[in-house]
Amino acid sequence: MSKPLIPAQRRERIQDYLAVHQIARTVDLCNLLETSEATVRRDLEWLELRGILERTHGGAILSQRMTFEQEYQQRVQHHPEEKKRIGELAASFIEEGDIVFINSGTTATQVLQHIRKDQRISVFTNNVSAVVELGEPGFHYYLIGGEFQSRSNSLAGGFAIENLKQIYANKTILGVDGISVKHGCTVPTKPEAEVVRQMIERTKGQVIVVADHSKWGVVSNFQIATIDEVNKLIVDEGIDSSAIESLGAHDVECLLADTKPNPA
């Protein structure tokens, strides 16, 4: 029988495991460390207090910080097929007569591109990229105005906020840079966070978050919503089942976009 590990050794191995896998189940850590579930939970709590991980339902995820905003064209290249399928699924929840807020970002742009052009709806957005990519949308499409943010191809600032205060939407669809149970939904810049928080405040219906699986466990600089303010998360099949369980415990419905290629 091997000699039991001391706490420092156990915690180091947990960190090594998370560095490779990003997500760990308590049962797997028990097997790895050859120790009890109670001991693993104490180690996870110790590591969480130091900001190394975030405990989830049945395990933990590695805390990943995103402290700067990437250029829009860089983000377009990350998980493009997943974003396309997520956008397609999210657009299917928009119904006749809806008034919808949609923010900036590459996944949010995919939502806008997949809205049926013959729908009688109104979309209010700060997403400048979509103006270029949509062409003639068919539905009523409004830019909220504001100061141009070149890195994200979006609009923000006091003018945008004041315009949003004149509108009530019955749905908001949001792209985010990070999502976790503990820290909620986050984005890297204050101007975008202020716009999105105003969108949520003026929504008398569901808040739907669209994010590919790489955003799970990521924490950016500014919170736009707690996890309890989110009704649905639309994500690709790469997300871990423990994440779905954790979200379900907070009454967040998790919908998986099918990213498998269609058979010929």
What does this structure look like?
This protein has helices spanning 7-21, 26-33, 37-49, 72-76, 80-91, 106-113, 128-134, 158-164, 190-201, 241-248, and strands at residues 23-25, 53-56, 59-62, 64-65, 99-102, 122-125, 140-143, 147-149, 154-156, 169-175, 178-180, 184-187, 203-210, 218-219, 222-225, 232-236, 253-257. The strands form five sheets. It has a seven-stranded parallel β-sheet with strand order 7-6-5-10-13-16-17. A three-stranded antiparallel β-sheet has the order 1-3-2. The protein is of the alpha/beta class and 264 residues long. The N and C termini lie far apart (54 Å). The protein has ten helices and 17 strands. Helix 2 (26-33) crosses helix 3 and helix 5 (80-91) packs across helix 6. Helices cover 36% and strands 26% of the residues. The chain has two domains: 7-62, Winged helix-like DNA-binding domain superfamily/Winged helix DNA-binding domain (Arc Repressor Mutant, subunit A); 72-257, Translation initiation factor eif-2b, domain 2 (Rossmann fold), CATH 3.40.50.
How are the secondary structure elements laid out?
Layout lengths: L6 H15 L1 E3 H8 L3 H13 L3 E4 L2 E4 L1 E2 L6 H5 L3 H12 L7 E4 L3 H8 L8 E4 L2 H7 L5 E4 L3 E3 L4 E3 L1 H7 L4 E7 L2 E3 L3 E4 L2 H12 L1 E8 L7 E2 L2 E4 L6 E5 L4 H8 L4 E5 L7
Parallel strand pairs: 4-14, 5-6, 5-10, 6-7, 10-13, 13-16, 16-17
Antiparallel strand pairs: 1-3, 2-3, 8-9, 11-12, 12-15
Helix pairs in contact: 1-3, 2-3, 5-6, 6-7
